[in-house]
Amino acid sequence: xRLQLRVIAIVAVLCLCxxxxxxxxxxxxxxxxxxxxxxxxxxLLLMNDKTDDALALLNKAIAAGGSATAYTLRCFIxxxxxxxxxxxxxxxxxxxxDPKFAFAHKVQGDLFYDSGDLQGSLKEYDTYLGLKPDDxxxxxxxxxxxxxxxxxxxxxxxxxxxxxxxxxxxxxxVSRGRLELQNKQFDRAYADFDSAVVGLxxxxxPLYWRGYTALxxxxxxxxxxxxxxxxxxxxxxxxxxxxxxLAYVGLGKKDLAKADWEKAIALDQKYGLCKEAxxxxxxxxxxxxxxxxxxxxxxxxxxx
Length: 304
Prior knowledge:
Blueprint: H1 2-14, H2 25-30, H3 36-47, H4 51-63, H5 68-80, H6 84-97, H7 102-114, H8 118-131, H9 136-148, H10 152-165, H11 170-182, H12 186-199, H13 204-216, H14 220-232, H15 238-250, H16 254-267, H17 275-279, H18 282-287
């Protein structure tokens, strides 16, 4: 459950509006000529955190006989503000007006992805990339959908294509790093998360994943530093504390480990089932395998 929530957090933090608007030439070209001014104005308002003003502008345009672009942009805003029931008819209307409007397929893919319909998102991303095969951002979203559906080879291919076009994009790096963790390619995963931290120094998610990778590599000092930095930036997920506890165990700091584990339990009672691990001696915990193997599943039961 925690890993799924972490993915949702990655999407919420890293999928900035700019990823779907002006910075991508493929997306910018998707807006039909009569809507260019609307497109630019909405983009500017969103970049300045004026979501309500952007919605008011789109409502006015739609009331006057909205185009596929207007409906798509409103679908985009509703999706990013998690008003999925409002977003769905707007994306559907956009595609009714223009079934081959690439931008609408991409936004509808994001709508499905964010609302939990991964198969639906995959279908829309396939259509989008068929229309815009050079958009690296599209490959990133499909990579993450495929990863969550367990298509590791397809996800790897998509993330590699995304990074070829967006070599320094933090969101792409986080997605590929997750794949490399799955394949136990820890050095490569660490490098990708490290790049994401540089790109988003004030966001906790890349720090969490770099710390998690450092924990797997038994780089306990680095893991503690990254988890601590993530917590300072507002990360209050129980697994951030439980994994920092395991890093403290690796460093022989049992009292700090116990304090973090108690915090994890306070945030999620399921971690109480693993508390026995912190009552064992550090040597006994290590004898179970290694500190990072204890408690990764919040429903674990430690066997002596």
